[in-house]
Amino acid sequence: MKKAFWSTLLLSSLLSANIFAQSLDDFISLGVKNSPLLYDLNNQRIASKFDSLLILATFKPQIRQLTQFAHYPTGSGWGYDEAITNGGNYSAVVNYNQPIGNKKLISSQLYSLDLINQTLKVNEIITTIELTKGITAQYLTAYSDFAQNMFYKSVIETLNNEQKTLKILVEKGVYALTDLMNLQVMITSQKIILSQSSIQLSNDIALLIFICGITDISNINLIKPDLKVDQEYDPEKSPLFAQFKIDSLQNINHKQLIDNNYRPRINLFADAGFNAITVENIPHNMGTSLGINLSIPIYDGKQRKLEYSKINISENTRSFYKKFQSSQYKLQFNQLQNQLKQTDNLIIEIKNQIDELEKLIGIYQIELDKGLVRFLDFITVFNNYIATKNSAMVAEMGRMQIINQMNHLK
Length: 410
Known about the structure:
The radius of gyration is 39 Å and the shape is elongated. It has nine helices and six strands. The chain is an alpha+beta fold. The protein has two domains: 4-59 and 102-262 and 302-407, Outer membrane efflux proteins (OEP) (Up-down Bundle), CATH 1.20.1600.10; 63-101 and 266-296, Outer membrane efflux proteins (OEP) (Single Sheet).
């Protein structure tokens, strides 16, 4: 009933704050490391390098071994017409083929792959942001439970000390036995709340380690995170807006790929080997051939114009999405900024209320020792103090949740 109340409460809070030592950054690092989606996206980017090599390989000389041994048997009144089949075909040639003059085509295809790789990188960033945001939100929820749990423990410890002092005052006849019983009811009520809080804490920590992909659930510790607003309003820094830029470049590149289909194609070819219609003639039909193949598109039913129209529609859609996303981004940021300001004002009001309640409780403690006030009045004030402290913790965690959303807008 003396200053031991506040010293016990403060000591319990300090001790509980030093018990845990695993930070939010630790959980985020584990979550990013264990994410199968990020692992998949990273492997896709690695695989895209092989796609580039495959494109380059298709424009290198292509050499093939072509062999055919075909015999067309005939008999009296049956068989293929030998004027068509020559009775057989026996060939074995090595074929060489080399496309030339395709630098623009190669460049466009490689650039297309580069844009795909950039998209994968943006997806990695977006996934990391979403994962970090989710882990942070769950960590804050778990830590809020933990802080409340520690607070309830300190309250029970303080009330137990008050109970010892009150017993002495009841024995002296300063207070009635019913006051002691009311205090016991209050302690029991706080123990029930503590049990509920412990269950909720256990569930929220389980969800946190599930999100982070942690298998070892022993020694899962939490410390209070220190979140600050680190993102000013700038939609252009959002990874979604980076994707809009990539989409625009993809539309331009798509047009280039279409244009490449209307460029003349030149192939050099050659072969060497034998080609005969009878086995006996094989030694006498050894030879070679070489040549050049030129393909020039003339008319295809205006397919290029139709493809261009499709790309223009895609570009208009992209521009509309970007404009909409920009307005939504600004709206979200302003709303969160306003919520943060309102929450800061609320926290100040709650802290002022806590200061008033602590002063009032201090006065009550002095007067309780002298039997000048009813003990039920003290219990009422103390319950108000507990409720206000809970409101302060909820408001503080709510503030951090708002900052988490602001820092991970995309």
